[in-house]
Amino acid sequence: MDINPLETEQIGIQTLEKRLMKSESNISLKIGVPKEVSNDERRICLTPGGASVLIANGHEVFIEQDAGAEANFTDQEFADAGAEIAFSIDEVYKKSDMIVKVAPPSESELELLEQDQTLLSALHLGNTTEEFLDLLINKNITAIGFEFIKGDDKEFPIVRMMHEITGSMSVQIGAHYLEKTEGGQGIMLGGISGIPPATVVILGAGITAEYAARTALGYGAQVFVMDNDLARLRHLENALDRRIITATANYQYLSSALQYADVVIGAAVFEGERAPCLVTEPMVASMKPGSVIVDTVIDQGGCIATSSATTHSTPTFMAHDVIHYCVPNIPSNVARTATYALNNVIVPYLLAIGDAGGIRECLWTNTALRNGTYVYKKHLTKKSLSKIFDMPYREIEMLIASQI
């Protein structure tokens, strides 16, 4: 097969379509995709190709007008795929039995949720409130959170995809802000013949860190990865053919590495917990003027003492002559790529719900969606949320088995 490099963006969804077009759904879902109202959120969950797959399998898709504009998908493309363009957000919610969106519903959107609807979105634990959960419970919403979806392989597919994008983007961002016009040192990340490359220090050794390291190596940078989990460091060394330098993230090594760092990428995080603060303010003060910090875990508190959340419209600030980039939602800046990534994970789940004959039947058989559910049949179903908000919860397996 001849592949035009200018069309490689489409290959993933074409492959998805070929595999999924054979499905014959037992029920027809009415799937609503509202335009995102959260600040700086440019992604959506479906591409026109994804919508066409769902429609070919007997489902209906309602897309709010201009929902895909920020990701460069036009209403005409969705209409050509067979989706119905809704001219208001109210129309999307009223016509749909399932709402699929990126950010959690805002306060105004919560009021639009209809009784017994299914909500598939991120949860954003740091901003979740007891009132938000109570409203979902009172409206008998089946709520599935991106952060909780975990398959039999123990992977979090949506989280992983976004972390891969974040890791790759963090190096691209660091390289950009090293330029003199952006306030940086005026150096190239990879160097050239006779001139050594820049030094990139990555804090953490998870998925974000791995993709940051891969990208930095691709640029030709010298890469240090620091973590206190030796097993992760070994894995990363092997995965990257020992082209990185690893060290435990203790005070001595961190202090030394940061003095030479041109770019520091904060990617240290513990699942379901606040990010550990590994870098102190004196360490930041010791860094070279014009160096760059990209704190990718700022949405979980950040792992650098001087970090403070910024926005895509005002992405950086200076502290101790060091550029800080602390945007919580990095993948949104590559909204088209991120939308394809979300689409390729979410469409199979939507088809699985239809094939199973409904959300209840699908939750019984689909481990990933069952793990992702945090509100079901007027009950909180996540022990972690129960502890945070001091609310009662029920095991989802019990609720499904009892046919409540």
From TrEMBL:
EC number(s) from the headed UniProt entry: 1.4.1.1
GO cellular component annotations of the record: plasma membrane
GO biological process: L-alanine catabolic process
Stored Pfam families: AlaDh_PNT_C (PF01262), AlaDh_PNT_N (PF05222)
Coiled coil: none
Residue span(s) of domain Alanine dehydrogenase/pyridine nucleotide transhydrogenase N-terminal: 32-166
Superkingdom classification of source: Bacteria
Keyword presence, Oxidoreductase: yes
UniProt keywords, alphabetically: Oxidoreductase
Protein name per Swiss-Prot or TrEMBL: alanine dehydrogenase
Taxonomic lineage: Bacteria, Pseudomonadati, Balneolota, Balneolia, Balneolales
